[in-house]
Amino acid sequence: MIFILFLLTLLSHSTSNASVLDFCVADLSSPQTPSGYPCKSSVTIKDFVFSNFNEGNTSNFFKFSVTPAFVDQFPAVNGLGISTARLDLDIGGTVPMHSHRGASELIIVVQGRITAGFISSANEVFVTTLSKGEILVFPQGLLHFEFNAGKSKASAFLIFSSSNPGSQVVDLALFGNKLSSALVEKTTLLDHAQVRKLKAIFGGSG
Amino acid sequence: MIFILFLLTLLSHSTSNASVLDFCVADLSSPQTPSGYPCKSSVTIKDFVFSNFNEGNTSNFFKFSVTPAFVDQFPAVNGLGISTARLDLDIGGTVPMHSHRGASELIIVVQGRITAGFISSANEVFVTTLSKGEILVFPQGLLHFEFNAGKSKASAFLIFSSSNPGSQVVDLALFGNKLSSALVEKTTLLDHAQVRKLKAIFGGSG
Amino acid sequence: MIFILFLLTLLSHSTSNASVLDFCVADLSSPQTPSGYPCKSSVTIKDFVFSNFNEGNTSNFFKFSVTPAFVDQFPAVNGLGISTARLDLDIGGTVPMHSHRGASELIIVVQGRITAGFISSANEVFVTTLSKGEILVFPQGLLHFEFNAGKSKASAFLIFSSSNPGSQVVDLALFGNKLSSALVEKTTLLDHAQVRKLKAIFGGSG
Amino acid sequence: MIFILFLLTLLSHSTSNASVLDFCVADLSSPQTPSGYPCKSSVTIKDFVFSNFNEGNTSNFFKFSVTPAFVDQFPAVNGLGISTARLDLDIGGTVPMHSHRGASELIIVVQGRITAGFISSANEVFVTTLSKGEILVFPQGLLHFEFNAGKSKASAFLIFSSSNPGSQVVDLALFGNKLSSALVEKTTLLDHAQVRKLKAIFGGSG
Amino acid sequence: MIFILFLLTLLSHSTSNASVLDFCVADLSSPQTPSGYPCKSSVTIKDFVFSNFNEGNTSNFFKFSVTPAFVDQFPAVNGLGISTARLDLDIGGTVPMHSHRGASELIIVVQGRITAGFISSANEVFVTTLSKGEILVFPQGLLHFEFNAGKSKASAFLIFSSSNPGSQVVDLALFGNKLSSALVEKTTLLDHAQVRKLKAIFGGSG
Amino acid sequence: MIFILFLLTLLSHSTSNASVLDFCVADLSSPQTPSGYPCKSSVTIKDFVFSNFNEGNTSNFFKFSVTPAFVDQFPAVNGLGISTARLDLDIGGTVPMHSHRGASELIIVVQGRITAGFISSANEVFVTTLSKGEILVFPQGLLHFEFNAGKSKASAFLIFSSSNPGSQVVDLALFGNKLSSALVEKTTLLDHAQVRKLKAIFGGSG
User: Fold this and answer.
1) To the nearest whole number, what is the mean pLDDT of chain A?
2) Under 8 Å between Cβ of B146 and B66
């Protein structure tokens, strides 16, 4: 046994996880840094498992649900540059136009058929309909969308190249906050009536 | 003189620029890589100078002009993780809602008064009006806008944390390409008439 | 229409994909660089879709199958720092002890039950059994394994924080190449007979 | 309104800034990490604005002034890999030979005419004179200088590819600290009298 | 003297180390982040010197010794992406098969003759014998080994592209912890007797 | 044997080095990219060995010698973020004041005694004398120097956190090229006579 400790000391230079940065499970109670959360000082197998990757509740306006396993839900991905989420689309369900400032995304369809697309910086449109077992790439920061293209429920796994991709939904950004109607109209050329109508739907003020 | 060459050889290990990667001026004629363009094999001081950073033509619908010095216009920034652009706003000029997938941005007002703002992933709105000599940060990938808040022309310098930030204008992405009206309506809840009207303005088809 | 091209020129600074590095679909026919493959000069929606993410053939010694969507199979992930693979385990199937030099990994169980684990640099063992919808993290470069813990087929999606994670199977590295038995025995303390036996299985010479 | 919170929860996974790392405004009171300062837990628009980017006082030996907006003066750039500074040069003003260990730099002349140059690792000299609206690149870590080439005041904006570029002025490093004259002479071959003279100017001891 | 402080303020923007991130000497008493340890608030020359890089004790089973100067032993390398270690091999000494999850390695032989090799992801074997003054590369995360090929003691300096490379020895990972014999046998095809024998040597339980 | 190829295909996804980016040995005949040289398409063990790390010729003005193993001399370090060099100092030998724009450095003394030091951005001086087996850190981009502090030859190994650190010697940058005396004097305050004298030594013109 002594020999083992000796070898460990020689080759692993540590008997604790915290000082061997194989991983850095987030201590969500500490302030973040630009590289992520500080590391928990001790971990168990439980820290590395995420168990809530189940079908979400799609009984809402857009008939979709996203179940994230990002760093705030799954601290083990802190610092690893990777995370995932589950997407469920009821019949007729849609994920409205949105983008992720911090990650490229892969969508893997696991059930049903999903139409998905993105628009590039060169303003080209890339749209396709995916069946079970097909994968599409959404490059980082570009507007994209998905909707159920079939007659039954659809589901997909979303993979992100960041532990915290962030999301921005166009409708929420324009109509779901205190951004004034005047500002929205000026910066989008949308009509006043249209803006008011959507602010009512998305709960925006001003 | 021999001594110098000797010292150079010892300490600079090179007599050519290309093999001392102080810089990598883009060879725009070669295919890009994920890290940028391959390097030009020989350079002169001219390669490091950009001379067209002048006031742009704002006689257009939005009464604004952006003069970029990105890698495609200024190959010397290739690989340096930095670039810049000049913004000019005529009276009443506006930069419509847009985002940059690849860079955070600083705006430095050099003339007039500019109202600028962005919306965060947490859907908070950050808006302010800047006078000459004031700077605002736009974090990477988030929707933001600027407009002339004064009674005279306004100008600003835009600084980006990438040699190729990319830009996506919401109106262009939604109304300026072949994305079908049906898709736009489905993913934004905008009315059909509104979408048709804006497609007419921005030249979108479908 | 002119106005659109104008806006595009101002804000997207490009009319081609290649010079707006939203993405860099690999040109697999060109030599790689440390950041990945050079970019294809023109792309279509087909470049962004992977369609072969189906159940693999598990009729082999270990009764498992891995279907990769890495950069060599799915060029669209080039430079994005992300890729995926599908794992299928027949009843009794096992993925032998291995590591990925270039990526951390998430395993998401989509069918059946899978026992998985890894060993840390501090030589701690982390093992658990995952059911459908559970996720485990394998930190970069650490030895790990999976096997079917149930009485039916099991499947999982593997997510990697690199477009080209690389893989090293301990048995293949020790017994499946020309590494001499003497070297294997000296560096592992395995018995000669054991090494010979496994070289026979894994086709090693020397 | 409920629907909005729901969408936010689904797509932004957060109702606070701190856990959505769109940005990481520096908490200057906490110890730095290799990636920068920890993030402030709550921010307002004021955190994103810098208002002191005005002409500096050039009544000094070199007749120049640098007004930095680096992370210590402008905490919002923390973690963004970008910062800026304003340079003012009185008639005859000079920025002495210096380098920035942590950033490449762009200089944009906004008033007057400035001669600027740098020396490469291959010991090539790159010098030019810039007029208003011209930009020059200084690659990271290389010695460079600027001086007023005109008959009136000159100003420029300096852009850096780091939130904290650091600066090292050759004269200060050699003559403005406790580095002994003997060491300076030995490592530069400067004459003793010259070293003493400059130490007197720059306040060096030893 | 006033002029100096003035210049310092203008150009270095700091009078403390902590806020000029030239370096970030680790505060080992604080929790790590994904980018390393937080920085010590004040440092002296002593913080930058490592003095224990001497010949280690090789009186152990494998007759080798590794003396690390990683971040936990040499806090000054924190955040610098570099570290080193000294290797000593007695006559007949061997470093067993291992890998480093976080770093590529260079071995520089300084005394004697050392046989070293690694196995690639493509399962190719690269082996050679190095004499004093020869260097070999071990790419990140790949299994490699070294042993004394001569009739006298051998020594080498090991250079790593990380301040905390981490190490995983195959024998320790398989036989030196609580990983059950059943799991080892299942994931390696090693015989039960062999596993028990090596667990006895390396102190594994289960 | 078939089984092996099968396993390799499944787990290594390659039968060539080039498409498994364990390493990227530089093809020095191709243009560099910002991430380094393109990779050689096929390699052997010879590509990974550097054999010229011997004592250099110190019969020169400064009585020192640097033998680099950077990417241009040792293509195997391409893309690995690491390189090394050997330093030899004759009695009285000195490495003049210099900096490396692209790397932090460790100096390991292997023979004799060496005085070494650097100056920080905060203009603090860090100097010490190292004996055999002692290590000092030089943070990236900061001016530093070394000289033989003993009565016999001294040698050291230099470790860099880049495959191509670049070097800039103050005397060469100021006096060993075509930078005009007037420019040197203006940007350093050195006397004309001093500049002429050193230009004569270092072979500068103008």
Assistant:
1) 91
2) no
The whole-model pTM stands at 0.94
Question: Mutual orientation of helices E192-202 and E181-188 as an angle, nearest 10°?
Answer: 120
d(CA B70, CA B85): 7
Tell me the pLDDT band of D163, cut-offs 50, 70 and 90.
very high
Q: What is the pLDDT along chain A (206 residues), one digit of tens a residue?
A: 344 444 554 544 433 333 337 999 999 999 999 999 999 999 999 999 999 899 999 999 999 999 999 999 999 999 999 999 999 999 999 999 999 999 999 999 999 999 999 999 999 999 999 999 999 999 999 999 999 999 999 999 999 999 999 999 999 999 999 999 999 999 999 999 999 999 999 999 98
Is E130's CB within 8 Å of F20's CB?
A: no
Does residue B110 sit at the D interface (CB-CB below 8 Å)? yes
How does DSSP assign A61-113, residue by residue?
TT-EEEEEESTTT-GGGTTTT-EEEEEEE-TT-EEEEEE-TT--EEEEEEES-
Helices (H), B118-188: 170-175, 181-188
State the angle between helix axes of A181-188 and A192-202 in degrees (0 to 180), rounded to the nearest 10.
Answer: 120
Ramachandran quadrant class, C182 (left: phi over 0; alpha: psi -120 to 50; beta: rest): alpha
Percentage, residues of chain B above pLDDT 90:
88
Task: Please answer whether residues E166 and E100 qualify as being in contact, where contact means their C-beta atoms are separated by less than 8 angstroms.
Answer: yes
Contact B21 F70 (CB under 8 A): no
Please indicate if any CB of chain F lies within 8 Å of the CB of C47.
no
- What are the two backbone dihedrals, phi and then psi, of residue F152, each rounded to the nearest 5 degrees? -135, 175
Report the alpha-carbon angle F19-F22-F25, nearest 5: 85
**Nearest CA among C101, C124, E140, D136 for reference residue F82:** E140
Cα–Cα nearest to A83, from C116, E141, C82, C113 = C82
Q: Is 50 exceeded by the pLDDT of residue F14? A: no
Name the residue among A162, B103, D23, F79 with its Cα closest to residue C21.
Answer: B103
Q: What is the dihedral of CA D39, D44, D46, D48, to 10 degrees?
A: 50
One-letter-per-residue 3-state SS of C116-147: EEEECCCCCEEEEEECCCCEEEECCCCCEEEE
Q: Please return the burial class of E29, using the count of CB atoms within 10 Å of its CB with bins 0-12, 13-18 and 19+.
A: exposed
- Is the pLDDT reported for residue E114 higher than 70? yes
Between chain D and chain C, are at least 3 CB pairs below 8 A?
no
Among A127, A166, A198, beta carbon nearest to B189: A198
Q: Does D34 touch chain E (CB under 8 A)?
A: yes
Would you give the DSSP letter of residue D17? S
Chains with ≥3 CB–CB distances under 8 Å to F: B, C, D, E
Q: Quickly count: other Cβ atoms within 10 Å of residue E46's Cβ.
A: 10
Confidence of residue B7 (pLDDT cuts 50, 70, 90): low
What values do phi and psi take at B195, rounded to 5?
-65, -45
User: What angle, rounded to 10 degrees, do the helices at C192-202 and F2-12 form?
Assistant: 80
Helix (H) or strand (E) holding B195: helix B192-202
pLDDT at B5 over 50: no
Angle between helices B2-12 and F192-202 (to 10 degrees): 80
Please tell me which of the candidates E20, E22, E39 has its beta carbon nearest to residue D33.
Answer: E39
ipTM given for this complex: 0.92
Mean pLDDT of chain B: 91
pLDDT in tens, B112-149: 999 999 999 999 999 999 999 999 999 999 999 999 99
Kindly tell me the sign of the dihedral angle through the C-alpha atoms of A179, A181, A182, A187.
positive
pLDDT > 50? residue E89: yes
Residue carrying structure tokens 């396709």: A128
β-bridge pairing F49-50 and E125-130: unpaired
